[in-house]
Amino acid sequence: MFRYIRRRMLGTIPTLLIVITFVFFFVRLIPGDPARLVAGEQATQADVEVVRVRLGLDKPLGMQYVAYITGLLHGDLGMSLRTKRPVTTEIAGRFGNTMKLALVTLAWSTIAGVLFGVWSGRHRGRWQDYLGMTVSVSGISIPSFWLGFLLIMLFSVKLRWLPTTGASSWKCFILPSVTLGVNIAAIIARFTRSSIIEAFKEDYVRTARAKGLKENVVTWKHAFRNSMVSVITVVGLRFGFLLGGSVVAEAVFAFPGLGTLLIESVNYRDYPAIQSLILIFSLQFLIINMVVDILYAALNPEIKFG
Amino acid sequence: MITVQQTIDSNPVEVVDKVSKVRTPFTDMIRKFLKQKNAVVALIFILFLVFLSFFGDSLISHQINEYDYSAILLGPSKAHPFGTDEFGRDLFSRIISGTKISLAVGLSAVTVGALCGTILGLLGGYYRGIVDAIIMRFADTLFAFPGIILAIAIVAILGSGLANVVIAVAVFSTPTFARLVRGETLALRTSVFVQAARNLGASDARIIFRHILPGAIPDIIVQYTMSIGSSILTAASLSFLGMGAQPPTPEWGLMLANGRNYIMMAPHVTIFPGLAILFTVLSFNIFGDGLRDALDPKLTD
Amino acid sequence: MEKRGHTILEVRNLRTHFMLDEGEVRSVDGVDIDLKEGSTLGFVGESGSGKSVTALSIMGLLMGTRGKITEGTIRLDGKDIVHISEEEKRKLRGGKISMIFQEPMTSLNPVMSIGKQVEECILQHEKITHKEAWEKAEHMLRMTGVPRVEHMMHEYPFQLSGGQRQRVMIAMALSCKPRILIADEPTTALDVTIQAQILDLMNTLKKETGTSILFITHDLGVVAEICDDVVVLYCGRVVEKADVCTLFAHPAHPYTQGLLASVPQLGVHVAELDSIPGNVPDPRHLPKGCKFAPRCKKAFALCFEEEPGFFDLEDGHASRCWLCEKKTSGPANNQPHVAVLVAQSDAGRQGENKNGRR
Question: What ipTM score was computed for the predicted complex, to two decimals?
């Protein structure tokens, strides 16, 4: 088992390196001269060159790359061209908010999705199933930003219960979380439903019923326990997407998170920030994938003991 | 079953009757699909949208960029079934006009992604070794980015505009298809009929395209329809963020973004484009579901 | 012959139909069973004859399928078990009637330990503590002869062989000392040597727990090995019933005769294996009259017109064949070549019977 974990962790490293390199060169493709951007429209060419040296942009790409990697290992992500502050500071300020939003959303949407999916799959072919399927397919089809607006119209404008922007109190998290979570809950529900329908067809479910076990026990302890593994995989993947996909939800609610930071940075061509943000998103994603794989192994007795 | 003797003896009309109840996998699939009423309705709606894409412009009464400052932000009325936007433009006409944009973007992006992904998947799965390793690393790298982040990154480089949105969506759809087709290829290349074809001296190209690809097609088709829905959503999201369609294009996501400032006084400006997106994506997803259930050989109870 | 008690399971005119898109499929169409206490009843038939569906109907395990019992009664110890609530049916399963299945490889939950699975069955039906249930489970497993029981309790199904898994299934099924055990082809998926061990085990345990067995199989050798009585099924109907000796000695129904005749004999060289011509009819398009008529060597005009009744011969022997209508003894005086074959198989079986049965 531990061998598996070690192997998995080592396997992530090459991908990580590729991603880092990829992001480095990628960002340099963005049009516009960053030195000019920093120096300002009015600066003379001489000033721009001074800035260029200061930013280390005059050195050959290879050396820039090395400098970049070294910087990464020291936790230095560069200076934001837009705010003139270290990128690390910008990110640190917003990281907490996005993380909180993501975790809360993941928690409720997973529970809702699983319960809904199991309920739907259990009553396959009957009204519960049709209702469940209709709701979940609507959930994946609805544009999240539109949903956000509808929620604002109802809860903020008409009812005045909840705020529309910011992250000052826990109330600020509700609407963005719902906006973000509906899509995820729907995906999880659909997946859980088909997983559990497959599980119900298995022989061991028939055996469980033949033992006279209550239908609830058959559903959860036998059918779901077997689907759980693949459901967790899907949930894990969705969490990774959550961190990036929150961009849209954050935009709707002007939520001070990493997503809005990315948008601001892209609009400004603040490439150290863009670079670092993209790196962080993919890093989170890779780490989560790895955790999910390990969890999968832990839950699957064949890998655990085999 | 009809025996030869029976065929010879009986009435030709009767024989044709019996034979026409032929069940091939294709007719089975059609039959199973038609049984799902909601999928059929979805298909009809999609065809309606396609129709609107081609002929919509000739049906609408107002110009889509007809500014009319005397009629701004009006609610739905007989003259303007969906109301007007902040420039007095008729929303109904704009939404209808936007149909072809959304469909074109969705379909072209996914088609390109599917083509690239399928080719990569076939090559990787069939030849294995280094080719496969490279392709898989490439796919894994792309997978390391949440879809919309990748799309934003690509648009950041290429600039805004719908063409670039198409490229961005195509890029992030490719690894999905690559993985899918690679999996199928891996499974099929060891099957008996592929071995037989190889023994008979068939070339690699022939094996790949004549034997393996057809086996993967059902899954590809299902993934394709499902991807259309999400690509339309992504395109609309990008437009909403200001990175996709630019004004005055009547793209639904863009219309929603514009309407954002007027939520309190004129909610219809955001409601109708959103409904358009919702129903379009919904119909593709329901259609995709129906298709998948019809193609699934295990689903005969 | 063993002592026969009263009828513990009585099935009368059971009909289970499946509503498929293409139409109604009558899997079980008028089956009668009498299972006597302490005996083993063999339930013989080809695939598609309706034997498994009969078993599932008795157990009430038709949920999740499109099958429904449309007619008939099933009585356990004289009490109806068809028209009772789902809850009551559930209580019977595992406790009063148990079932083991054909595919031991997939019949156990892959993510639960063996011990937990057996214990679960016990805890469902008996109000005892976890510790007691665990010990009982261990005891039951030990009785089935698996090696290293203490280890196995903590192992997972993937670590066990097919034969071992089937023993676990048997342990689970018998753990609550059910009145009836339905065994649906439990040895078909196993090697012949393991098969013999499992059959031995079932016989032994049956005596210890006093369970009556309904043994479903298509293998006549197994029937000869462990059954007291036999019921032969064709197209969802019982076509012959008898005690095992009579069935092998004087099969009355042409189908039974055909089954017996098509078993190759060790040491007897034949130019061609005798098989029953044709195929089992499509359940959606059953022939009029006797369902076996199209394949029957002895069929005559009436057979194609009207379905024969279930005619009593002697001593509990009955057959659904027009040829048996007026006869009171076996049809041995009918076709000489069948008689010869029957005599041969008779001799063979008698030999086996004397050695094989305990």
Answer: 0.81
